[in-house]
Amino acid sequence: MPPLTRRELLAALGGLPVLSRLPWHRTRPVPTASQLLWQRDELALFIHFVVSTFTCREWGDGRESPAIFAPPSLDARQWARAARTAGARAMVLTAKHHDGFCLWPTATTRHSVASSPWRGGEGDLVREFTDACRAEGLRAGLYLSPWDQNAPVYGDSPRYDQLYCDQLTELLTRYGPIHEVWFDGANGEGPNGKRQVYDWPRYWGLVRQLQPDAVIFSDAGPDVRWIGNERGVAGETNWSTVDPSIVTHPGMTGDEVMRSLTEGDRDGTVWRPGETDTSIRPGWFWHPAEDARVRSVDDLVDLHFTSVGRNSKLLLNVPPTRDGLLHATDVDRLAAMRTRLDAMFGEPIAGTSGDASVTFARSATVGIIDVREQIASGQRVARHVVEARLDDAWHRIASGTTIGYSRMHRVEAVQASAVRVRILDAVEPGTVLRVAAYPPA
Fold this sequence. Notes:
Layout (H helix, E strand, L loop, with lengths): L5 H7 L20 H9 L1 E5 L4 H4 L20 H10 L4 E7 L28 H11 L3 E6 L12 H18 L5 E3 L17 H11 L4 E3 L7 E2 L14 E2 L12 H9 L6 E2 L2 E6 L17 H10 L5 E6 L10 H18 L5 E4 L2 E17 L7 E10 L2 E8 L6 E20 L6 E6 L3
Parallel strand pairs: 1-2, 1-10, 2-3, 3-4, 4-5, 6-9, 9-10
Antiparallel strand pairs: 7-8, 11-12, 12-15, 12-16, 13-14, 13-15
């Protein structure tokens, strides 16, 4: 068979120049400065605190009286101090949950703190929250539920879209820089019996206009995606790149959608890292019956490995009590978690770093390996192995797929003189890895 002519070859490749079809000539997505800052935070606390705290329900129905919102000792600085002690660099507050109760004095509804006895009706919890974050050196984020069971116009899509955008505008213009704006796809019947059609492009565009440095979270991004579960476990394979045509708006379901949320996409065309959210308690709001069911320190440490250690960021919910304070047990567990993690990762085993390897100054016992890509230049590794040098020979001690920001391996303790990472598959050559080894925990 004669060789193909240039014209025939181009036709076979869809009319594109040959080099543009080769993977190492594609332009890989990279994070924005805001996405990079967001990922490097590693841990943020989620604060669920609205009228549901006082009714002992997970979801309100919009018929709660604002009079029940009366936390006698509310101290947002206590929340922020606990977050900082835990090693968090940001917090996200439920400015409004599905019940429609607003934690700031809004002009859009009477269903807010302005109608409550708290602070004599003059309180603004969003203000106290953002001030507390900045006082403790944390970045502030806000969650505004799109589902609103109290708003009479919910389900009258154009009218509710305007109300929702008015609420977003208040939140994004009154309280200084907002680091993360958090959405979900919750969508049920309103008091009028109708289901709302959300104008997501309008909402996201408003955030871009008013807070251009904020990252926008939702199932579909556009900056950060949900990891697909609320257990605190990111996928073993977790690309920060996704195909935006698969998950186009929050609330989508289906196997392909869930796979895209959990694993991302090796050939994805946009950078959209995953956020792993879960609660320190069984519920998202405080319930006295759960005071004895707070996650153990071991469990919290495990969350670090299954979120941050799988190329994700952990958003850990810690709900205040009816007093307006984080429960002492929760605060103690957060502090103990940080103490344990600092002990684990305080100092890597001393050695000389090379290309994806580290040779120890002397033989050492290895139990944890932390491998990182330089994600400012994108994500490339699709499959890798970790090897330890034992008795002058290399032995495999761990393997995995993606790496990204961080891939942490806890391995059976071995006495080694060096460790190295070998890349078995990558979307592009030239990957630079940072490898650190630590003693067993």
